[in-house]
Amino acid sequence: MNQFLERCKNALENEHDDARVHVVLGNEACDLDSVVSAITLAYFLAKTSSEKRTVFIPLLNIHRSEFPLRTEITFFLKQNSILAENLVFRDELHLHALHNAGRLSLTLVDHNVLPSTDAVLEDVVAEVIDHRPLERKKTASCQITSELVGSCTTLITEKIMQEDPEILDIQLATLLHGLTTEQMLRKDLKSLSGGDISLAISAVYVKLEVFLKRPALQKEIGEFCQKHGYNILIAMTIAFNENNEPFREIAVYSRYTDIRDCVCKYLEKATNPHLRLTSVQSTHPAIRAYHQGNTQASRKKVLPIIKDFLKDRENSVTPGVGQAGISEDSGTCEDLQLGGEEQLISSEDIGVISEVEERLRDVGEVTDLFDVTEVGFEEDVDQRESCTASCRDQPEYVAADEDFQLPPTPMNSLVEGCPLDNGLPKLTAEAFLERFSKIVVDAENTAAGKKVKSETSES
Question: What is the model's pLDDT at position 177?
Fold first, then answer.
């Protein structure tokens, strides 16, 4: 596939004035379905066409600078060994110039109507393949395949299987199959636990409608949760519309009615921030779905809501009742009982603890900045599943959905003898405990000093 894409790019750079260019154009949202449809269909046409003087180009309908924001796509293509440098983007191919020269023909995939800015190209649209309701008039000059199926790649696969199945190889079949549900959930996942709940929250970069239509979705999510010990999973989907504006939706899965209802109620009533959730129909009994009106509330902003819920839940669970004590369809949130022994803490202790927590938060924010390791779905997630409701979430995968920025490069990083020459210092458990002890001692000494000063002033 990379060889084909590289030939496409070279052909454009060394094009002959009389060569025709057939562009397979995805939609302006440039989601995974659109990208894979464009690449695989262009490959199929190049392999089967009798037009020797025509170059078939899969065109991603965004500027190259926007591509890193499509993390679902960058991840998937990387997993399939497709190099981004071999792709062609909208700002790299001048369709209107080719049209004016009489050298352009178009196939539209995953959409069936050109936007007003490209309306002049309508006369060279030779084929349309789309899985959404048809919005264009049928003409003799344009072949149209329009069926209301789950994805456009389904139609591309049917076309290949009907016309020339022998060109299917492992890479092409993998591209058309797409990510598995487990891969989608694991590649950008954070886990938390509190009380009787072990919760996973995944960022999923497809439309919720598409996600919910995945075959055997509830079964696959259930198996994923059972495999990794979760009793509830929240999928926060993000996609982009034709104006490149993000829109967010949420799916909440649990086979335990009590837990599912409690989490949903907490999210619905959240005010910091207010998510402005609107129920969306779900055909899966164990999955509740919502449209999220507040598009500014990324997963990073939703996590504190979930942590608060887990803390409340932890304080409301009878001691000794864990996951094994939960039954399916086990009642409502109001059935919870308050448990645990009450511990009395003095105001001075609270002051010391608060200062320690504040300093640890500062340390955590610094260390978070350097934890930018990209986590693929093959990595063992067991290390991530030990996080509790009170621990800080580490950015396991840097996604466009997160409010994350790399720290600026130190001005002396290239100077000989710089402390960073050998990399960042390694943090060990011993060093962390030593630092924690020092913070506690410092805080206690500070509190004691303030108390002595106060007593001296009073005397």
Answer: 80
| CB-based contacts of 429-437 (< 8 A; 24+ apart in sequence) | 435/363, 436/356, 436/360
Is 0.85 topped by the overall pTM?
no
Closest residue by Cα to residue 131 from 106, 114, 108: 108
- Asked whether the beta carbons of 136 and 113 are under 8 A apart, the reply is yes
Return the SS3 of 228.
helix
Q: What 3-state DSSP class applies to 229?
A: coil
CA 348, CA 336: separation in Å to the nearest integer? 32
H or E stretch including 217? helix 217-228
CA distances from 316 to 114, 309, 311, 338 (A): 55, 10, 9, 4
Mean pLDDT of the chain: 77
Taking alpha carbons only, the member of 283, 289, 298 closest to residue 71 is: 298
Angstrom CA distances, 446 to 45, 358, 381, 453, 457, stand at 75, 15, 41, 11, 16
Interatomic CA distance for residues 427 and 438, integer angstroms: 16
Return the amino acid letter for 295.
Answer: T
